[in-house]
Amino acid sequence: MKELLSQYQQLAAASMDEATALPFATYCNDDIFKLEADKIFSKEWVFACAEQAIANPGDYFSFNLAGEAIAIVRGQDGELRAMSNNCRHRGTPLLDEGFGHVGRNIICPYHAWTYDDKGALKGAPHTGSIRIDKEKHCLPQFQLQIWSGLLFINLDDKAPPLSQRLRGIDNYTAIFEPQRFDSYSGGNLEHWDANWKLAMENAAEGYHVFKVHKETLETVGPTKTAYYVAGSAEWTITGGESVDNSSKLMKWFRGGYPEAYSHYLTIILPPSFVAILSYDSLSWIQMLPDGADKSVIRSGAIFPKSMFKEDKQSKAFTEAFFAEDKWICERAQRGMQSKLGKGGKLVELEKSVVDFHQYLASRLFGENVDEFIEGDNAKIFKE
Ligand code: FES
Ligand SMILES: [Fe+2]
Fold first, then answer.
1. Whose CA is nearest to atom 3 of ligand 1?
2. CATH number, domain at 133?
3. Which of 107, 44, 116, 41 is nearest to 81 (CA)?
4. Fewest Cβ atoms nearer than 10 Å: which of 17, 68, 138, 293?
5. H helices of the chain, where?
6. Ligand having the closest approach to the CA of 126
7. Has this prediction a pTM greater than 0.85?
8. How many structural domains compose the chain?
């Protein structure tokens, strides 16, 4: 384990010129997963869901964050709260996982201890001669912050604010005015037989698009037009030209539309959020670990109400390229069991993967990593 840790540290900290794939064992080892759960998922800002997905009082989203059952509940007072979803009696998860609706009370399915929508214990039935101190049995609350209509939580109450982590990112995203995106569309929930880092790396790089997504994504965002916009270990933005953008291109040629509107951005925010931002929408994939060699993958999108169309074709398109990613990630995961195999050099189009590796190096090992850099095409988005 000691040797694996030191290899992990060394390879994850490497700069672009020396960067290679990480040691394969880091994608299947339980101890490495425990370290990541401890140093990353228990301390870092993690994307949960869109604010619009839990828009009404009583709406909730519940999910498993590397072993912690979490619920985000919109109370009857309209406020959003992130709280533990483990009952204070004997720990049973309270609300069902996923999206749902709860009334004024959250009732445990085991012995019916009952909490209000702020997580305060209201009562426990059949306690006999035992008195329950309600104050001492409330559900722990966690930090919850919003960026561009997206909810992030942090289990560490001493963590610095999300805005610090995202400093500078709006310089590139603001041109698309994501505050216009007031509608939400839920995507898929999938279980992949792949480590969360494989799913993250795969979503972060555009290098595989021409091969894995030849008939799907490559036709609308070709690999050869992809470029690095800006980034560091904290977050990365890459971009590319949208091919299937004829109406906006026409408007642009007529004037009045910035060049950026015929491009898209990929926002990579470790540990578990990658999104495509364009003039039309912000659509994301979220990858959360389910042990060392499995991930839970959720997707979704926000967009302006005016752009909503129940479009069977685009749904089928999204499902097709998701299936391609699942297939390649699960195949890559099988390669990670090799004891003799060794990863090779990362290429320029994988700079976003290098940034992610440096994020791992900084959070897991306290490594100092490379400075923020900006590519030539950044100017397209900074008009
Ligand atoms: S575990 Fe929840 S009431 Fe007993
Ligand atoms: Fe992909």
1. 111
2. 2.102.10.10
3. 116
4. 17
5. 2-13, 30-36, 162-165, 170-173, 196-204, 209-212, 217-220, 246-253, 312-335, 351-365
6. 1
7. yes
8. 2
